[in-house]
Amino acid sequence: MSTPKQPLAGIRFIVAARQSRKPRAGEKVEFPIEAQDGRARSWAEAEGGECVGLAADFKSGTVAPWDRPHTREWVSETGEKIHDYDAIVATKTDRISRGKDEDFSTIEAWAVRNQKKIIIVGPDGGIQYPARHDSDFWQWTATKRQARLEWESIRERSMNRQADLRARGKLSGGATPFGYDVSGTKYDKTLKPNDIGREWVPQIFERVKKGEPLAAIAKWLDSEGVKPRFGQKWSAKSIAQIIRNHTYVGQRKADEIVNGKRLRGQGVIRIEVEPLVEPTLWLAANNRLDNAPRGGRRGPKNWQPALLTGTLFCGNCGAPMYRLKVRGEYVYYRCHGHLPQPRGCGTLVTESLLDSIVDESMRANDMWVYEWTFEPGEEAQIQAEIDRIRLNLRDLPTSGLSDDDEDAERERLRAVRRELESQIADARPDRWEKGVVLKDDRTPLTEAERWKNADLDGRRLLLREYRVTFAWSEERTPIVTMAPLWAVSETP
Ligand SMILES: [Zn+2]
User: Fold this and answer.
1) Which of the two ends of the chain, N or C, has the fewest CB atoms closer than 10 A to its terminal CB?
2) How far does residue 311's CA lie from ligand 1's centre (Å)?
3) May I ask the CATH architecture of the domain 168-290?
């Protein structure tokens, strides 16, 4: 007889769970946790772990799970409860993160500092952070990437809706400019000039065109009793914002959205707005502003994010290292220290030196590139069905049915919903599959090849799959590690 493997033997764990419903205002109830979370607990117990608690909060789009009250009391580094367990078990990373890189950075740094494990349900003891072996590392990386993609697709959906509204020539959010009112209904909004706008906006443009100082124009408007859009008094800044605004020539300026990415400051999309000034006047006023003497110095343009931001940690104390521009010629990465005391340990290295070491290492990296593909289970699909039925139920009173028909339809929809809710408990779970990435000639792609073909943004993204540490040796040689698959040390 063989002994069953118990990968979590001796581990005291808590489950990061989600309450099935958010309490309404004033409601003092704790709702049961979601079925998946109950299964995560049974799974971890079957793997040999001992459950010592439950951190169950309800879902929120704005507050990171880490900062929600029940989770916080367990993970707080100054609290009592942090000593009571060794690991956090979760059915999916959305129980601990919104999918943002900043959430994961916080969680990973916390786990390392406090010697805790993060365990996502899966075969052979699950996916563990910190990694026990390569498989953990890649699966954790893939899980994070998937979480990020899910997060981005949610954002993309909301941006697509905005793009759609813009394409139809309607207004979609953004501040209403001075002199205009919003008219129309929720998905059919547009801007209409009001009487105040018709009277004052052309005069403002005329005065700027003539070269009158902005502060003087602001004073004049105040003395005439004209109220700005926000606040009580006009300022040079609020005048300048009017002059720069394309709405006044009938162009509502909106960022173009391509493949779900907002192209900031590129592309002007025209939508239906009645102009308040002629293009000639608008241009003349803007030219005058462009050529007006201006105080203050501007920072360097094209200040790109650093190659190693989010990836680099201090080999001396474990804290993250960030780029720092020092007056003069050098740019450094510097140890930032641990929050809440952001005082580094003094580790400092020039950006050019460290970037070139990392570049050299990556060019010599002949590891294969793996890809984890996500096989979604049935649960999300069933949940979507349930949500659709909830929507139908909500809209039922406006469907124009007779009382009897409406009651019958409500009963029918509820029965379908109950049936789906019972199915969800047995739904096939999400699954990950690992595979080697092949090139066109069917040979495996290597990390070095991927690196050489990537641009700066691509490389920054690629490095997110590494944890790079930097320290100086006693002989002042740089020690760089790229964890966990391989290490480079004593590079000249
Ligand atoms: Zn340090």
Assistant:
1) N
2) 14
3) Alpha-Beta Complex (3.90)
